[in-house]
């Protein structure tokens, strides 16, 4: 487990940008990492499909993917992975608990859990997927509707396989979960802010950061 990466991401989510990290915050983050490591039950599942183009879709399951960002990202890919990951219900319960008794801890716990999930997903991808691949694209970004998550969850049977469901409101449960699309065969594309819905009011950008890693 890459603990320094978890801390680095968590600080980014908390709005830290080259400030000196005080001891109290540092200890709280370490405490949260330790807690989450103990109580999380990371689970992941994925399915792989051949891609069809013009329009972009997966013929085998009649899934329409014809959105500008996906056409752009997957233009040189031959296959697509639909992936779902979660940290499990215990993290969710502990997060609720802190939100009732200690807001500071709740905020830090939330940021560390998000970072933990991201690092775990990256590690899982590195173990499972060989060869060139694009970054993980999550519905809700650009013009790809968040509603697509329901269809993707159904296709990978995320509820049955890893206990991840998509609510009517499109919220993932447990909330520290992720559903994404990864193209195979091309790793040249990097995520950009260009088509992000948050570009006008993005707090990361205001601080001179981005929510994704840059080379
Ligand atoms: S940094 Fe902000 S604008 Fe850029 S992709 Fe992330 S959330 Fe969107």
UniProtKB/TrEMBL annotation:
Protein name in the entry: Vitamin B12 dependent methionine synthase
A single GO molecular function term of this UniProt record: methionine synthase activity
InterPro entries in UniProt: VitB12-dep_Met_synth_activ_sf (IPR037010)
Species this protein is from: Faecalibacillus faecis
């Amino acid at each position: 487990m890459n603990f320094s990466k978890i801390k680095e991401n968590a600080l980014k989510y908390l709005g830290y940008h080259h400030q000196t990290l005080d001891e109290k915050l540092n200890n709280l983050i370490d405490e949260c990492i330790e807690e989450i490591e103990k109580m999380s039950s990371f689970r992941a599942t994925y399915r792989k499909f051949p891609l069809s183009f013009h329009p972009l879709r997966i013929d085998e399951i009649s899934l329409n993917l014809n959105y500008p960002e996906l056409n752009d990202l997957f233009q040189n890919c031959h296959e697509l992975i639909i992936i779902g990951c979660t940290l499990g219900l215990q993290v969710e319960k502990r997060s609720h608990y802190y939100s009732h008794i200690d807001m500071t801890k709740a905020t830090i716990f939330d940021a560390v859990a998000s970072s933990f999930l991201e690092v775990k997903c990256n590690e899982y991808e590195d173990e499972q997927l060989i060869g060139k691949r694009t970054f993980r694209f999550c519905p809700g970004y650009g013009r790809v509707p968040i509603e697509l998550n329901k269809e993707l969850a159904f296709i990978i049977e995320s509820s049955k396989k890893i206990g991840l469901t998509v609510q009517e409101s499109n919220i993932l449960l447990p909330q520290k979960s992720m559903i994404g699309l990864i193209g195979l065969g091309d790793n040249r594309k990097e995520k950009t802010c260009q088509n992000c819905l948050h570009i006008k009011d993005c707090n990361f950008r205001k601080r001179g950061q981005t929510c994704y890693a840059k080379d």
